[in-house]
Amino acid sequence: MSAGDMDEYINEIKHLKEKYSEQIELYLGLEIDYLDETYNASIPYFCSLPLDYRIGSVHFLNNRQHPPTEENMACIDGPFDEFALALERFYQGNIRLITEDFFRASMQMVETGGFDIVGHLDKIYQNGHLHPAFDFNASWYQKPLEDYLDLIAEKGLIVEINTKNMVRKHQTFPHIDSFKSLYQRRIPVMVNSDCHFPDLVNDGREETLDLLKETGFKVTRELVKGAWQDIAID
Questions:
Q1: b/e burial code for range 198-216 (CB count within 10 A of at least 16 → b)
Q2: Could you tell me whether strands 117-118 and 73-75 are parallel, antiparallel, or unpaired per DSSP bridges?
Q3: Cβ pair 218, 209 in contact under 8 A
Q4: What is the pLDDT of residue 166?
Q5: How many domains is the chain partitioned into structurally?
Q6: By the 8 A CB rule, do 49 and 63 touch?
Q7: pTM score > 0.90 for this model?
Q8: Is residue 97 exposed (0-12), middle (13-18) or buried (19+ Cβ within 10 Å)?
Q9: CATH at residue 65
Q10: Which residues fall within 8 angstroms of residue 105, CB to CB, at 6 or more apart?
Q11: 8 A C-beta contact, residue 139 and residue 81
């Protein structure tokens, strides 16, 4: 969404809040990219917006050799063929290097702050695991992931359990195998479909809540009456 559309977005949500105030609780939120120290959730522009919550996410990696414009950054989202081109252009095809950079940027995002929820914290896995040299269990992947979780726990942030691919691919972000690490660190979680289509707003929610219960989670963190609260998983 461009900055030019922000006022329309805010006003529309305010209107819908009032229209449906007797039926649902509706909140004004924004997912904000971390690009570098000049563009992230903590800069004055985003802090000035009347948001109820903010999600911090990494979709683009600045290779630190160019200004942070979209064409000069590696996109880790989208189709694998585009990811592969960015991997070759900015990281000489080295999956370990781009993974290292992803967790570096992610930890900088958390240190910088300005948001409530960490979005799809291991997004690099989406395309990364399709690369022949990727290894989820390798120390070069697991060590920075565990360090990242330690930092998230230290800062007291909420982690999004993103169910977007749960029904189609039995895949969540973070990876299902990381649920135990979240639980052991007592990191609060919230379940979010990250849907781009209204009919998928609850996609994968029930299945993911069941997996969280199996891991040991008894509650999820949710906004209720304007405050973050722990709500029992039914």
A1: eeeeebbbeebbebbeebe
A2: unpaired
A3: no
A4: 93
A5: 1
A6: no
A7: yes
A8: middle
A9: 3.20.20.140
A10: 34, 58, 61, 62
A11: no
Q: Which domain holds residue 52?
A: 30-232
Amino acid at 14: K
Distance CA 201, CA 192 (A): 8
> pLDDT value at position 160?
98
Q: What are the backbone angles phi and psi of residue 84, rounded to the nearest 5°?
A: -65, -40
Residue carrying the six token digits 């977005």: 9
Q: Which residues of the chain have a pLDDT value below 70?
A: 63-68
Compute the distance between CA of residue 7 and CA of residue 226 in angstroms, rounded to an integer.
Answer: 21
Are the CB atoms for 214 and 207 separated by under 8 Å? no
Crossing angle for the helix pair 80-91 and 95-112, nearest 10 degrees? 90
Asked if residue 14 is part of any domain, the answer here is no
Q: What residue ranges in the chain does DSSP mark as E strands?
A: 29-33, 53-57, 60-62, 73-75, 117-118, 158-162, 189-192, 219-224, 227-232
Residue with tokens 């004055």: 44
